[in-house]
Amino acid sequence: KLASHFLMTMHNFRLGRGKPSMLLVRQFFGADASSHDSVDARLRPDSLLRSRPSLIRQPLGTYSKWVRGTVMLCLLAVPTFFAGLITSPLLVTHYEGLVGQVMGDFDVSQNSHVYLTDLATKLVPNTDTKGIAAFMAVSMALIMIVFPILNWIVVCVLWLVPIKNNRTLVHLAALARILYGWNALDALFFALFVTKLELHLVGNWILNDRVPEVCGAVSTNLGEECLELSVSYLTGFWLLIATLVAFIPLMILTFFYE
Predict the structure, then answer these.
(1) For residue 237, pLDDT beyond 80
(2) With b meaning 16 or more CB within 10 Å and e meaning fewer, what string describes 150-161?
């Protein structure tokens, strides 16, 4: 929320709406709030009144080359990493303990790979509450697959497509901010992080709650748990981090210059 407020403040300042704090003005423009108009005229491009065909070719200030290079690198990196994220397993779940041994005896795989698309495709078939599961599946497909793709497309349009209509630019900039707000890849990262830490508790709770006598006997006589679940990260998890890292500077620059 702090980062979002900062980006909105700087965005409004560049559009001439309101005045940011004295600290922000001195830090980023070397002036105080009283010289707001002169700073606008001297240092910032009229990003919503484009003089060039596309934003990437506009004068972007002192660090134009760095900005253009960063934007182009991120625009290429995001779809590359995201494509790998879609097609690669995020993690593998290991079934251990007595249940794991029984699975091995019956030639059932003790390892289960999880893909990003599984969140949308495998939730409904594996539960009895179909209505809620369908709602959750559609929601996760939207915020973890559809919205990130649309977010990248809108940002590409803002930077690369020649648009001179002010209303269109304002609406696209607002749409990019909304889509980025609903882009839940960061939430997925934290969910996977917590999963690795806490999944073993879930496995113990499921069986100990349903068959406490059996699990108690197994623990006492055999010295092991009924079911132990553990998680190992795979390629998709690291590509998720790479996608997030590529998205952050891209969106910061987009909000700042649009």
Answers:
(1) yes
(2) bbbebbebbbbe
| Angle formed by the axes of helices 235-257 and 147-160, nearest 10° | 40
**Average pLDDT for residues 131-143, to the nearest whole number?**
92
Buried b (16+ CB within 10 A) or exposed e, 183-201: bbbeebbeebeebeeebbe
Are 72 and 230 a contacting pair, CB within 8 Å?
Answer: no
Reading the block at residue 221, the tokens are 């006589």
In this structure, the dihedral spanned by the alpha carbons of residues 195, 201, 202 and 208, taken in order and rounded to 10 degrees, is 170
Q: Report the C-alpha gap between 38 and 58 in whole angstroms.
A: 20
**CA-to-CA dists, residue 219 to 172, 201, 204, 206, 226, angstroms:** 60, 15, 11, 15, 7
Residue identified by tokens 């020649």 is 162
Copy the structure tokens of residue 73.
């690198």
Sequence letter at residue 129: T
Q: What is the pTM of this model?
A: 0.73
* Phi, psi values for residue 123, rounded to 5°: -75, -45
| Of residues 127, 137, 184, 155, the one with CA closest to residue 56 | 155
Predicted confidence (pLDDT) per residue in 82-94, tens digit: 999 999 999 998 8
pLDDT at position 141 is 94
Do residues 124 and 133 touch, judged by C-beta distance below 8 A? yes
